[in-house]
Amino acid sequence: MVKDELKARFKIHDQGPTSFLLGVKLERDRQSHTISLSQPAYIEQILETYKIQDCNGADTPMAEKPLLSTKDSPQTEQEKLEMRNVPYRDSLGKLIYLATATRPDISYTVGVLCQFSENPGQAHWLALKRVLRYLRKTTNYKLTYGLKPDSDELFTTHSDADLGGNADNTRSTAGFVMSIGGGAVMWSSRLQRHTSLSSTESEYTTASATGCEMIWMRSFLDEIGYDTASYPSTLFVDNASAIQVAKNPEHQSTMKHVHRSFNWIRERVANNEIRVAHIPGAVNVADIFTKPLGRIKFEQFAKMLGLIPHPHARTQSMR
After folding, report:
1. Positive or negative, the Cα torsion across 228, 205, 202, 130?
2. Where are the beta strands (DSSP E) in the chain?
3. Contact 205, 160 (CB under 8 A)
4. Domain 147-289 listed as CATH 3.30.420.10
């Protein structure tokens, strides 16, 4: 056992199975062979802090339209004065911890809201409160591991990028998710540092950045005794052109303006460490990290992330 090996090397005090860690609730279901992570108490605390624990729930954390921009920021001194006492940064900080710990479903929205933390306006504040209303409805969601995975590989990885979705600078939003046991273990949603000229470029550069995370995971799994050297890890991408660029150096002429560092993934593909495969956009779960989605598609992808409602949780009151 791992505990016995640790005891042989270190002086430890065994306090039994972990139930809470840094505000995260851990639950094991021996019968179904699953383990879940959630933060219901943390969410309740946030809602009570801003006195919206009895608010109406929202189906998604962000409306599909209109897109937020700096045009929604205060333009006059009066508008800035009205926002001075609004706890935008404070509440956003709380949501950042939630988005990075157990709730990947709000990562995209939180990332967008962070772009306006210097000068938030009423539209941004209303968008943030929508996230809170979404959390009100989904307080009982648990990030669950042990579900039947979609692949026989140790982990599965999906990446995606929109094209010029940012309303202020036309940069693309890149997202990826890595899952083990049917649940997300690593995820990211962030604005790219450059402006892409095509969807191929935005997807290709995202795939390369995601590949770095995959190599780290392969190294980690190798260190703890798993065999990762005998087969490549699959990266699912929904852009066929980006896949061809990653596999075939002869496509260099069409991507010669892209910084050479992004071509790193080609070497990993050639070395049989990463396999880039196509997946239809309709089932690419990384799409949830690149743009606001409608309810049906959003719920589908949230479930694919491993976010499962607890069947025995208390039904939240709505008004």
Report:
1. positive
2. 20-21, 24-29, 34-38, 141-145, 156-161, 173-180, 183-191, 233-237, 274-278, 307-309
3. no
4. yes
pLDDT score for 252: 60
Query: pTM of the predicted model, to two decimals?
Result: 0.90
Listed residue (303, 273, 267) closest to 288, CA to CA: 303
DSSP code of 316?
A: P
What are the DSSP calls for 256-306, one per residue?
TTS-GGGGHHHHHHHTTSEEEEE--GGG-GGGGGTS---HHHHHHHHHHTT
Q: What is the DSSP string of 145-174?
A: ESSPPSSSSS-EEEEEE-SS--TTT-PPEE
Of 292, 11, 70, 17, whose CA–CA distance to 173 is shortest? 292
Cα gap 210→248, rounded to integer Å: 18
Mean pLDDT throughout 31-55? 93
- The length of the chain, given as a count of residues: 319
CB 166 within 8 A of CB 223: no
Are the CB atoms for 72 and 116 separated by under 8 Å? yes
Mean pLDDT of the chain: 90
- Where in the chain are all domains bearing CATH 3.30.420.10? 147-289
Is the pLDDT score of 313 beyond 70?
Answer: no
Those residues with Cβ within 8 angstroms of residue 248's Cβ, 6 or more apart along the chain or in another chain: none
Closest CA to 190 of 213, 219, 218: 213
pLDDT at residue 131 greater than cutoff 60? yes
At 304 the pLDDT is 96
Per residue in 79-89, pLDDT (tens digit) is: 889 999 999 99
For the chain, report the end-to-end CA distance as a whole number of angstroms.
50
Pairing of strands 233-237, 274-278: parallel
Is the CB of residue 279 less than 8 Å from the CB of residue 236? yes
pLDDT at 258: 78
| Nearest alpha-carbon partner for 161 in 209, 117, 115, 113 | 209
Q: Residue 249: its pLDDT value, please?
A: 66
